[in-house]
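Q: I'm writing up a methods section and want to include an example of the input and output format. Could you take the sequence below and give the corresponding predicted structure tokens, formatted cleanly so I can copy it straight into the document?
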Amino acid sequence: MVITGPDLTKASPRSPRVRLGGYVILPRMLDKGRATIAGKNGSYQFSCPLDRRFFDFTGISPNALMNQLATGKSDELVLAWIRKSAPRPRTASEIEAWSTFESHRAPMDVESRKLFNSIQEQVAPARDDIMTWFDLLDVDDYGSFKDKD
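A: Here is the clean output for your methods example:
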């Protein structure tokens, strides 16, 4: 079976803000997983620290999710599998609260602030409106592919 997904050497994955089943991060992670299977993930890494926040919240393992993606399941079928198989089943209100928190999460300690500032200096040094990790990822994704057609 040929797994189709985005070619992340030519375009970025979906924004971490995009939701599937109420979950932020999940569509981006699915893009990265499918691209990894297809050997077209570029510099994007599946099961990066951002992805692990989803895994920690749901109890789903990265390997189990990759196995589901390897079967060629659509986003909707993967979501159904997550809802059925998650060791930590979550209510809609828990998912909403977690997604809202993640959407607004900013660096909370000195080390993460240093990393954040370092990346921002590389991708958007003149911007003073980048406050959250999602802001930074969106700007970095845009900068990585703005000149590619």
